[in-house]
């Protein structure tokens, strides 16, 4: 299987409309080059452009959804279209990842569960999703996650319990914490014996330099491919069959002890 991670530069000065058109064209360019294309988190606005979230929020089936469905269909690829600021009809905003089939049909929508910012930014502007999402492709089961989720291993165990073999992370991770990004991507791959496809963005917006360094890690924790800092298409061949082989030969997941009680205090 071949995955193309489109590490989009999200810079101020390019309008949302212009970027949407540019990204649509980049997705279409992957026709015949990839089975699965992955985009970053909140690439229309930038993950840290908090002042744009409400202004640029879209209904689920808004302009970005329409453009990405068409691009997936024209390219004939599975498309994890990164995430958009979604406005729910009842009012709240969500950071919502979209996945399309090669026919341009919706395969999944995942509302980010862990919002970043502590008492600021996304954590107060967006509502939290509650549901884990997996998508069955012909070759592998994909578990969907977004950026800050990467710090929460229990989310990935939940995805693995739902059959995930390939863990996709769409991110807008900052350069200043790049060491965590690289470490956590490998950790999630090793502990879950799964592929990790982690697609970040490049450029700078809202004073935050993006880390880039999108990465694909195999179920043994080896880095199969890694991007640099700037806008780039990272194309990686990977073999989903290696997940079951790794889990059979080194069956650590079978040794999980479930339902451990919280330690007693005092
Ligand atoms: N957009 C995000 O979720 C940022 C996450 C982040 O900066 C971090 O976990 O560190």
UniProtKB/TrEMBL annotation:
Which GO MF term does the entry hold, naming one? hydrolase activity
Answer yes or no on keyword Hydrolase: yes
- Keywords tagged on the record: Hydrolase
Pfam families, from UniProt?
Answer: CN_hydrolase (PF00795)
Give residue ranges for domain CN hydrolase: 1-240
CDD domains in the record: nitrilase_5
Does Hydrolase show up as a keyword for this record?
Answer: yes
Which PANTHER family does the record match to this protein? DEAMINATED GLUTATHIONE AMIDASE, NITRILASE-RELATED
Q: Which family is annotated?
A: Belongs to the carbon-nitrogen hydrolase superfamily. NIT1/NIT2 family.
Indicate what this protein is called per its UniProt record: Carbon-nitrogen family hydrolase
Q: Which organism is it from?
A: Streptomyces beihaiensis
């Amino acid at each position: 299987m071949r995955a193309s991670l489109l590490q989009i530069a999200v810079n101020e000065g390019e309008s949302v409309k212009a970027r949407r058109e540019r990204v649509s064209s980049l997705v279409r360019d992957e026709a015949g080059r990839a089975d699965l294309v992955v985009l970053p988190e909140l690439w229309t606005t930038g993950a840290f452009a908090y002042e744009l979230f409400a202004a640029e929020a879209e209904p689920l089936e808004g302009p970005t959804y329409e453009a990405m469905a068409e691009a997936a269909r024209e390219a004939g690829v599975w498309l994890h279209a990164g995430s958009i600021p979604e406005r729910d009809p009842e009012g709240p905003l969500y950071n919502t990842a979209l996945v399309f089939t090669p026919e341009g049909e919706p395969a999944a929508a995942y509302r980010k569960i862990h919002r970043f910012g502590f008492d600021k930014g996304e954590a107060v502007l967006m509502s939290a999703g509650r549901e884990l999402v997996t998508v069955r492709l012909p070759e592998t089961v994909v578990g969907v996650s977004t950026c800050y989720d990467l710090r929460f291993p229990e989310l990935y165990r939940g995805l693995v319990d739902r059959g995930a073999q390939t863990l996709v992370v769409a991110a807008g991770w900052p350069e200043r914490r790049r060491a965590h990004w690289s470490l956590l991507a490998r950790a999630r791959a090793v502990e879950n014996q799964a592929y990790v496809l982690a697609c970040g963005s490049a450029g700078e917006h809202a004073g935050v330099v993006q880390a880039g360094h999108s990465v694909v890690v195999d179920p043994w924790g080896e880095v199969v491919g890694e991007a640099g800092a700037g806008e780039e298409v990272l194309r990686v061949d990977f073999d989903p069959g290696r997940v079951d082989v790794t889990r059979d030969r080194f069956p650590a997941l079978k040794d999980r002890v479930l339902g451990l009680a919280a330690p007693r205090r005092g």
